[in-house]
Structure prediction request, 290 residues.
Amino acid sequence: MPDKILIVDDEPDIRGAAKMILEGEGFLVTIATNGDDGIQKAEKEIPDLVLLDLVMPGKSGLETCQILKSKPKIKHIPVVTFSVLGRDVDRKLTQDAGADGHLVKPFTPDGITSAVNQQLDRVRPKKFYEQLGVETSEINGKKFLFEFDPFTPYERLIRDFAMGSIANKEAIVVLSPSGTSIRKTLENEKKVKMIDLTPDTMISSIISDNPKGPLNLIYDSLTDLILSTQPQSAYLFVRNSLKLMSDSRITALFLLNPSAHEEKDVYGLRGLFSSRIVYGKEGVNSLKLT
Prediction:
């Protein structure tokens, strides 16, 4: 899945030019025509970066930026403002509002592309951890039950985990059957090792194939496993897998949609994990680290 850029600008010509340039570079682009619309779309779609005009009817770019940076769900998203003003005082105002960068209009294709890539590269290694509100060292080596609401963009957080692994030069392996949203999100990422998840998939073989250095795993998903076998079989599989993953160099996310199962089955799986992430409509709702 390409990085998604949200452009917030009331001028159709500017929006159109920026959209054309960025889509030509392979980005996904979504549009908002004012500050309120931009805030709503940022919360709903969780873009990877926001390009924000400073001078707009209604909420100004500065006010919009301050609101974006005040919301826990989206405050991690880099914001690059742009305007016809390039004075030091204008850059200082945008910086004080929380912006991560500033572009002067009219911008060149190289200028806007460079600004976007610079910010994306800057945040990628730590983006997943910032959304959890923790340091990298607090996550490494833990095995998480990742509970998600299927009606949220939870896939983007999983993608941030995978892309952060790559940025940090760590091996990332995704176990996923064909057709899942996680597989569609990550299957075109060249440095993500995608393994078809079948009844014959062996966790031990994956670990032995990656004997050195940090190894990050995404298991997609326990919901499919429970629905295709029996809750007790899934319980035993997870218990055995966690024993195999006891090495502190291994970090793992086991995905689960709790709404698809009976509470007793979910409760049993929770008991196997000492660490847990819950992702809902407000983003990361709960984080347990032990």
DSSP finds 13 helices and twelve strands in the chain. The domain at 4-123 is CATH 3.40.50.2300 (Rossmann fold). The first strand starts at residue 4 and ends at 8. The radius of gyration is 21 Å.
